[in-house]
Amino acid sequence: MSLRQFILARAVLRTLSALKHSIVYSWDEAARILGLQEDLYTNPLHHELERPVNVILIGAGHRGSIYADYATKSPREMRVVGVADPNPKRRARIAAVHGIPPERCFSDWKGVFEPGPGHEGHWADAVIIATPDRLHTAPCLRALELGYDVLLEKPAAPTEAECRQILAAAQASGRIVGVCHVLRYTPYFRELKALIDAGMVGQIISVQHLEPIEHVHMSHSYVRGNWRKSDSATPIILAKSCHDTDILRWLVDSPASEVHCYGNLKWFKEANAPEGSTARCTDGCRVEPECPYSALQIYYRDRKRLYVFDLPEDESKWGPIIMQGLNTTDYGRCVYRMDNDQPDHLTANILFANGVTAGFSMEAFVSYEGRRTRIMGSMGDIVGDMESFTLTSFKDGKRRSWSMKTDAHGGGDHRMVKDWVQAVGQQNPALLSSPIEVSMESHLIAYAAEKSRLQRTIETVHL
Ligand SMILES: NC(=O)c1ccc[n+]([C@@H]2O[C@H](COP(=O)([O-])OP(=O)(O)OC[C@H]3O[C@@H](n4cnc5c(N)ncnc54)[C@H](O)[C@@H]3O)[C@@H](O)[C@H]2O)c1
Known about the structure:
The chain has 16 helices and 15 strands. By secondary structure, it is α/β, with parallel strands linked by helices. Among the domains are: 3-39, no CATH class; 201-268 and 340-406 and 436-460, Dihydrodipicolinate Reductase, domain 2, CATH 3.30.360.10; 270-332, no CATH class. Helix 7 (137-145) runs parallel beside helix 8 (160-173) and helix 8 (160-173) packs antiparallel against helix 16 (436-455). It starts with a helix and ends with a strand. Mean pLDDT is 92; it is low at 1-25 and 31-39. The protein binds nicotinamide-adenine-dinucleotide (NAD). The site of nicotinamide-adenine-dinucleotide has 25 residues, from helix 4.
């Protein structure tokens, strides 16, 4: 029996929690004693598939490549048989890694669905849609129309109307649409959810949740990057924080009824440009050596966040290519002189139908990443930081802690792909924690929060 099965057996857990605390060890200790460390999170519903699920990747950028990598790790479960991306380097990379013939490589998502030699009719089981935010709805609707199952990047769609259209199409077609709410698949949040569902903190009364974006990450994606304008991407509460509205909804286990949001762009604007700064960091900016957002420092010297430059394998060629990128792309521009409009700080209050309240903050100006969550329950509380948490019971005063080191996404990316592949392979949507029917709610909270922020209103969330 895995620890996951063990924890999910609520009756067992409730009995255990009622036993004297001398018997109830911390989760780590219990797992170690039971020898369960190796298979903590195996899902008993996963089966060996008769054949791999054949998938077409639409959008071969950062996220798409991570999802496609699952096929190299688990070739018996998933195969990437086609790719669409206007960027020839990205297309070629995916084609080379997955052995995709040229007739199944497309420069636009539409090509995937137009019959031609080598791609007639229904030529795969499913599509992964990892295109930019404003390019999700059309390929998703087309894929559903033609009978493909879908893995859809979040945010599912930029507007409530489009999101509802996707939901309706998924329901009408009977196809599976999984939304990439990867946090749900992380051991950390799964563990929190299991403990809460098992009644370990009694009833949840309220939650405080912090999303620390980290200041350089903010500058990269939401000041210089493709998500810097809410009308060409999506509002940041949707683009970044629909993960958080989803996690809150999931943990609280009740629909949201009202939301209120404040937030604005306070720092990354021209009024704050230091004297001596220039349009580009490479233009002889006088403050570049001490600027935390120096593109020369981040990309050229520290060699961080380089995927946007589409670098070749040969690292000896990187220097001039990065420098050219700093001279010609948005990634070399001064963070104070962009055309960005996304808030760099934001707070939202959510009232759930069961009376639970949640306070959420999205913050750019922090030195760390990793969501921080405090759960206040009638019989205990939980304080966690996405790597570890401590549960304190009010009944016995005993503290129990859990910890696990993972990657920046909490280890959720491939766990999510695995559940989706299994759902498609077995044609069983119940294997997914984030089908569109469920993910929809996080989006509705986010749309309402953005409306509240812009109009200074308290919004009702209509499901
Ligand atoms: N689930 C998460 O945690 C998470 C994290 C980051 C981003 N995202 C979301 O994932 C999506 C992709 O983000 P990304 O970081 O991979 O961006 P990206 O820019 O690296 O990738 C997007 C890719 O789509 C391609 N594309 C553009 N137009 C296309 C078209 N007509 N047909 C096919 N491909 C097209 C682009 O060339 C690019 O390669 C976005 O919606 C983003 O908000 C999700």
